[in-house]
Amino acid sequence: MSLQIEQRTSAATPRQEARGRAAFERVGVERLSAPFGLRCGALLIDYIVLAGVLAFATMLARIFGDMRRGSTVVLMAGYIAVAVVALLNFVLVAGLSGRTLGKWVAGLRVERSDGARMSFARALVRHTIGYALTAGTLGLGFLLAAFNSRGRALHDLLAGTIVVRSRATRMPLR
Asked: In whole angstroms, what is the distance from residue 155 CA to residue 161 CA?
């Protein structure tokens, strides 16, 4: 008995390879698009972190409640800490890595709609102007992601971004 090993060679032209790569990238983006529930969970984690910082500052202000001026200073420091944490999480970290803390935990990443990395300017527009307008619509801007074919909310449309899964989805074994 002899064992024959066949090697398959790709005889595709560069044009066919580019077309196949483009189709794969299109399918990849659609398949990796972040589900609405996962996006909500990531946002909830981000806001829990901010609420935790504010709760800690409020607790410290209550401890120093005997001294009127001391509790006011601590509470003001807490407000400033929340603003700093929000700026770091939503602009600096998001601009560097395309993720906030919540998106990192949920396995999501924010990219430009063409698949390139998100810049600091886009992160700033997305998380300040976009979130403010989304909140100004009483949350309807967030709900837009549930009905949009690509899962883009109002702040994503304004900044030209899309939220995708950063981890590969596991395919079931057959």
From this structure: 8
Query: Phi first, then psi: what are they for 94, rounded to 5°?
Result: -65, -35
Could you tell me which residues are beta bridge partners of residue 111? 117, 162
DSSP codes, 37-90: HHHHHHHHHHHHHHHHHHHHHHHHHHHTTTSHHHHHHHHHHHHHHHHHHHHIII
Domain boundaries, the chain: 36-165
Q: Which amino acid is at 163?
A: V
**Residues 88-97, buried b or exposed e (16+ Cβ, 10 A)?**
ebbbebbbeb
pLDDT digits (tens, 9 = 90+) for 106-160: 999 999 988 888 888 999 999 899 989 988 999 888 888 888 888 899 999 999 9
What is the C-alpha separation between 117 and 126, in angstroms, rounded? 14
Phi, then psi, of 59 in degrees rounded to 5: -60, -45
Q: What are the beta bridge partners of residue 162?
A: 111
- CB contact at 8 A, 33 and 150: yes
